[in-house]
Amino acid sequence: MRSCEVLIVGGGPAGASAAWRLKRAGADVLVLDRERFPRLKLCAGWITPEVMRELAIDVDSYPHRLLTFPRLRVHVGRVHLPVACIQHSIRRYEFDAWLLERSGAPVEQHIVRHIRAEGEGYRIDDAYRCRYLIGAGGTRCPVYRELFRELNPRASDLQIVTLEHEIEYEWRDADCHLWFFDQGLPGYTWYVPKERGWLNVGIGAIAERLKRTGRDIRTHWAGFAAKLATDLAPGALYDPTGYSYYLRGRVDVVRRDNAFITGDAAGLATRDLGEGIGPAVRSGLRAAQAILDDRPYELGDVTGLSVSSIARSMVSRFLHAGRAGRRVAPVEGGTADGLRHRDQ
Ligand SMILES: Cc1cc2nc3c(=O)[nH]c(=O)nc-3n(C[C@H](O)[C@H](O)[C@H](O)COP(=O)(O)OP(=O)(O)OC[C@H]3O[C@@H](n4cnc5c(N)ncnc54)[C@H](O)[C@@H]3O)c2cc1C
After folding, report:
1. 240 lines ligand 1 (CB under 6 A)
2. Whose CA, among 1, 160, 309, 343, lies 20 to 30 Å from 60?
3. Is the pLDDT of residue 233 over 70?
4. Average pLDDT over residues 73-88
């Protein structure tokens, strides 16, 4: 039987962030993940500057693909809006493995199945024992299933279904594009270029509303792929895969005795854009801090809306440009050069 002070189930952004904070404070931590890293994680890989700040990641030193967008291109029907704000894209395959390794925590490949309370702590699959348990296992997290599901049942009207594919592709437009409600989709489609010839395209929609439209997600995908073929990504071939997760609903109980839930396990993705990496990171850090400082674990500052962070980025971009005495970069045109960190 392996014993540790804090056991984290799941080594994605939530688990790796918690592990990083705990290890830096000298805690005895172990991470269990069903996969061997680097592992595939379906995700567009768009992240905000706040995530980089919270994790103290210097964008210039990050060793893998990282592309900085000086704008998002938002399309709603015939309205095409360039939104001047700084955002980044990474490849989850690289980012998650790097984050987990950087945490310095030992990682074991193990599929967690059974969790039992034992004294002040927990016994996992009769193979691990811990005092504190952090559930960071994503949508199908066993900590959620065994300890929290009854307390926080998930709302079916907040379930998101997705299809996406990340491919090697020499894209020409270096901007991130989002199309909302295209062809009646109750959600949005995206085109997210990655540094050095990778591209992620995908589609996400509220499952219940999609069902009511009578068109399934694969039909929407076909329309989306046809549009990309005539415009942004001619000649690209896709074999998309699906995944489902939950937008932020009522999460009444996030701590139960010495057990915590974080990230997608708690269903924390933002209501407007389904952004889950930021909430996963912040909740992981908050859970770790609650353990270290013996204080309440609260998610009050884990935002439920991406638009607030985008607005902050827009304001800081304008202020930054003002202080530097230069014009904010024009928002027309995306080029494929200067990819690493084009702040302005
Ligand atoms: C198609 C798609 C596109 C998305 N695009 C974006 C985006 O661009 N930006 C953004 O911010 N968010 C995006 N999201 C949401 C984002 O991917 C998630 O919210 C985020 O990954 C949550 O992180 P997490 O650490 O909570 O869970 P995860 O990243 O899912 O990590 C959970 C880990 O737990 C492990 N695990 C699961 N079960 C077990 C078990 N029984 N035992 C041991 N280990 C287990 C898994 O192997 C996994 O490594 C997207 C989601 C999808 C599906």
Report:
1. no
2. 309
3. yes
4. 94
